[in-house]
Design a protein that fits this description.
With 501 residues, the chain is α/β, with parallel strands linked by helices. The protein folds into two domains: 14-410, Alkaline Phosphatase, subunit A (3-Layer(aba) Sandwich), CATH 3.40.720.10; 428-500, Arylsulfatase, C-terminal domain. Helix content is 28%, strand content 16%. The chain has helices at 39-47, 61-70, 103-109, 127-130, 142-151, 162-165, 192-204, 230-233, 261-269, 277-303, 335-338, 365-372, 388-391, 470-487, 490-500; strands spanning 14-20, 49-55, 113-118, 133-135, 181-183, 213-218, 226-228, 310-316, 339-345, 354-356, 360-361, 402-403, 411-415, 430-435, 438-443, 448-452. The radius of gyration is 22 Å and the shape is globular.
Length: 501
């Protein structure tokens, strides 16, 4: 099979990946959807391409990251849920680790120097197995905690300190995060995202300069707690933030959702939108702060000549509900949690001002990067698709005009609770298929949701069960079931076995 890399006969590019956590699509300023400012994202997108119709495979960290770095669906990669929760509480069965080699393994075999800095979340102590160098990958930032201790300052990751973290945790059991905004109470140069940036920058001088570089910088932000330096805390005016059309929960939502943990935390914080204005403003400030750190990292790469022939990729693992649909957190099948930004630049290969609006998924990242490195991803039989042909050559468009695929593509998303989460979340595991303008969600108790996104982007009107949508609903259900059978999805396999018995 021919290689789709446009520069397969040339020197392989450096591959620089920057991953944010919990960043919504509507935070990207060039899209004009909110007042949030992301000049670095905008610059990379305008120098290359912005993909505005990308969905995560799962709106929680570990499964999404498994898909990003392996090119497989979460259940195929051995990471259907948050891996560390399997041994976090009584009843756990041991922490999960990915069972597919990540992209670094393949790139290292092809002669790349490989490094990973920051949040890993794909298994305990296994990042070192796949990368030449790692830093700051320990779960829960414990290496940062030790650094703060050595510096004689309070732990900048406040969730490690019960007293300092109390305002940022729910009074409900378990004490997960709430949208409490806060001002950083340690020197800004000691903040944990900046510390991670400095680890990544120092790593650039440890690389083998005779090899092309694959480097990942994985930030914690803008994941809660929403604690930022004062300048970013004050950056956006809460009073100017408009109330979203889908602020209230849908009347036809699954009947368990109004009493779920995510709805109760949201309502405890405030049913009225005014209670959320400052939280959203500080979330935007956090996004802009991380954007500034990304620019610092890219400047450090440029100063070392690493961007002259480099594929730069900016992306996030999942979004955040931020109170919309009556929900806090992100474990739900709505686009505030599922749609993520992705920007890529590659001088001389991806035309400036390319806009890609075809349906895409985080499983597409690995095959795209492999193809860019001159490695044919086809023999690996990944679930993802190489996006380079859509970003280069005759299929790409310039001047930020959207491109789309000729035929609809099925995009699949899922959510699975860990054993430690079964008792308190109050939601069902779910599966979702997005095909063209349609989105169908199947919940494990049999309840379904159906939305037509071109007419109802806020997903306010559940069309499931209506005579006019009967055929569409059945078609999507059949395609979802077939995908579940093909990929070994246990929830859908159980559904099919129950239906046939």
């Amino acid at each position: 099979m021919p290689n789709d890399s446009p520069r397969s006969s040339d020197t392989p590019p450096n591959i620089i990946v920057v991953l944010t956590d919990n960043q919504r699509l509507d935070t990207i300023s060039m899209l004009g959807r909110t007042a949030c400012q992301t000049p670095t994202w905008d610059r990379i997108a305008r120098a290359g391409a912005f993909c505005d119709n990308v969905r995560t495979t799962s709106p929680i960290c570990s499964p999404a990251r498994a898909s990003i770095f392996t090119g497989y669906q979460p259940q195929q990669a051995g990471m259907p849920t948050i891996g560390f929760l399997y041994n976090k509480l009584d009843g756990g069965t041991g922490a999960l680790s990915i069972n597919k080699p990540p992209i670094a393994h393949h790139l290292r075999q092809a002669g790349y120097d490989t490094s990973f800095t920051g949040k890993w979340h794909l298994g305990p102590d296994n990042a070192e197995q796949y990368h030449d160098r790692t830093a700051a990958t320990a779960h829960d930032n414990h290496d940062y905690t030790q650094w703060c201790l050595d510096q004689g300052i309070p732990d900048g990751f406040v969730f490690h300190d019960p007293k300092r973290s109390a305002p940022y945790r729910s009074k409900l059991e378990p004490h997960m995060s709430v949208p409490q905004p806060g001002v950083l109470d340690i020197p800004e140069d000691k903040e944990h995202n900046r510390w991670t940036l400095e680890q990544a920058t120092a790593d650039l001088d440890q690389r083998d300069a005779s090899k092309p570089l694959y480097s990942v910088l994985s930030f914690e932000g803008p994941h809660p707690p929403l604690i930022v330096p004062q300048h970013y805390y004050d950056m956006y005016d809460p009073a100017s933030i408009p109330e979203p059309d889908n602020w209230a929960m849908n009347d036809a939502c699954p009947n368990f959702l109004p009493d779920s943990y995510f709805a109760r935390v949201r309502n405890a914080w405030g049913r009225d939108f005014d209670a959320w204005r400052k939280s959203i403003a500080v979330y935007w400030g956090y996004v802009t702060y991380i954007d500034h750190l990304i620019q610092e990292y890219l400047d450090a790469c440029a100063a070392r000549g690493l961007l002259d022939n480099a594929l730069v990729v900016l992306l996030s693992d999942h979004g955040e509900m931020l109170g919309q649909h009556g929900l806090w957190q992100k474990m739900c099948p709505y686009d505030e949690a599922l749609r993520v930004p992705m920007a890529m630049s590659w001088p001389g290969v991806i035309d400036p001002n390319t806009r890609l609006s075809m349906d895409a998924s985080l499983i597409d990242v690995t095959p795209t990067l492999l193809a860019a490195a001159g490695i044919d991803p086809a023999p690996l039989q990944m679930e993802g698709t190489n996006l380079l042909p859509h970003l280069t050559g005759s299929t790409s468009e310039s001047k930020l005009e959207p491109t789309s695929e000729a035929e609809p593509r099925d995009i699949f998303c899922q959510y699975n609770k860990a054993p430690a989460q079964e008792a308190w979340q109050g939601v069902e595991n779910w599966r979702c298929i997005k095909r063209g303008p349609w989105k169908y969600v199947y919940h494990a108790d049999g309840q379904v949701e159906l939305f037509k996104l071109d007419r109802d982007p806020g997903e306010r009107h559940n069309l499931a069960g209506q005579p006019a949508t009967k055929n569409t609903q059945q078609m999507l259900a059949d395609r979802l079931d077939a995908w579940g059978q093909r990929t070994g999805d246990p929830l859908l396999s159980d559904k099919m076995e129950t239906a046939s018995s």
